[in-house]
What we know:
Elements: E1 2-4, E2 9-10, E3 22-23, E4 26-28, E5 34-43, E6 46-54, H1 57-65, E7 70-79, H2 81-84, E8 90-101, E9 107-113, E10 118-120, E11 133-140
Amino acid sequence: MFISDESYSFRFPGLFGHGRSAWRMLERQSMDPWYQVVRRICEGSGHRIEKLISTSASVLVEILADSKTSSVEVVQVITPPWMNATSLDRMETLIELTAGYDHSGEYVLLHKVECGAVYSTSTDGTSDTSLLTEVKTIYEDPKRNASMVPEYPTVLMPKIPE
């Protein structure tokens, strides 16, 4: 979850549309992975780029499913140090996001990134889909399979347990 502080609110009512506001700073206290989605929005004969940040895989699914007038350019995952084995958060291009349950029934997300690494939310380090049950692919980067490039990313799972 992102936390906002009213003193960092950008206060111009209505400037960003009904029900929308802008913030100059957000705080994040969770040590879970989060996501950035870059979308191209078609507007008449032109387009604009928007960047959306998601605090969870379930919100990511909602963003990816909302692609009526947009196309996803890239999805990036930001992994915390405990997942990426460094001392800092790391942002990388997400190639595939898979979910399933490990041997103890824990819900696990596997994040395959552009360099080939697989980051897992499992507490025991499970990073292989063959060790999971009820495996579902949440996202696949369509640019990775040139022979079957769909217009939008593949989204196969509508709801993810939090």
